[in-house]
Amino acid sequence: MRRLLNDAVRTLVPTGEDRHGPLPPLMLTLTVVTGLVDAVSYLALGHVFVANMTGNVVFLGFALVGAANLSALASVVALAAFLLGALSGGRLGTRFATHRGNLLKTATAVQAVLVAVTVAAAMVTDGRVTTGVQYTLIVFLGLGMGLQNAVARRLGVPDLTTTVLTLTLTGLAADSTPAGGAAPRPGRRILSVLAMLLGAFAGAQLVLHGHLVLTLSLVLLLLTLVSVTTHHLSSADPDWTRSPS
Q1: Which of 106, 86, 148, 88 is nearest to 241 (CA)?
Q2: How far apart are CA 92 and CA 99, in angstroms?
Q3: What is the C-alpha to C-alpha distance for residues 150 and 53, in angstroms, rounded to an integer?
Q4: Among 71, 103, 115, 177, whose Cα sits 20 to 30 Å from the Cα of 41?
Q5: Cα(32)–Cα(202) distance, integer angstroms
Q6: pTM (2 d.p.)
Q7: Is 237 buried (19+), middle (13-18) or exposed (0-12) by CB count in 10 A?
Q8: Is residue 176 situated within a structural domain?
Q9: Where are the transmembrane segments (predicted)?
Q10: Is residue 11 one of the residues assigned to a domain?
Q11: pLDDT tens digits, the chain, 245 residues: what are they?
């Protein structure tokens, strides 16, 4: 238990010697963003995911055989937007390959712009999800989450992918002491799961009570916070900004 708590504290408040610097708490914030965004997409946009592509592919299969309340078109649009966002994230990763701070700062700034479009679109209809609003949100949120996923992959912070928890949960169990493993980073893995849960819980509470614009505004606020904080912390080119590989 002490090891788990120490690891959790080091993840939330990294020491100066941590080779990933402040990236872990920043990535946890982006994990909360993912939970918020998928709450919006699933609960308000017609049972489609814009961050969880595994679930989206499964939904597409269900929709193609006529399952109720699922749209093949919405799933295809979300997949296409996500892939385009990931392509853009890959290009950013190549451009800022030598400076992780500039990569995260730029990527979250671009995400913030994309989410700002969704806030404006939702405000136009006072939070009502018309067909136009639905597909605008699917496209722009999908672009943002594809970008985030690609950038998180390039940043290379272990157990903090910000969008995918399957491997994190698998590692938490498979590498545990009862399984005969060394149980690396148990606190970080649990925090990642809790961050996603927190985002999904908060997003569901807001969306189900008719606060779509507020939910998207919260996403915009968190992305802006991450971008500004990263800019401030990486401006002096500390060691953690260098690629870990």
Answers
A1: 106
A2: 11
A3: 13
A4: 103
A5: 9
A6: 0.92
A7: exposed
A8: yes
A9: 26-45, 57-83, 103-123, 129-147, 190-208, 214-233
A10: no
A11: 677 788 788 888 887 778 899 999 999 999 999 999 999 999 999 899 999 898 889 999 999 999 988 999 999 999 999 999 999 999 999 999 899 999 999 999 999 999 999 999 999 999 999 999 999 999 999 999 999 999 999 999 988 888 877 777 776 676 655 544 556 667 888 899 999 999 999 999 999 999 999 999 999 999 999 999 999 999 988 989 998 76
Range of the domain at 67: 24-234
| 166 CB-near residues (< 8 Å, 6+ apart) | 54
Q: Is the dihedral of CA 222, 168, 189, 208 positive or negative?
A: positive
Whether residue 124 lies inside any domain: the answer is: yes
- For residue 28, is it within any domain? yes
Q: Give the tokens for residue 217.
A: 């505004």
Q: Which residue has the tokens 């498979």?
A: 174
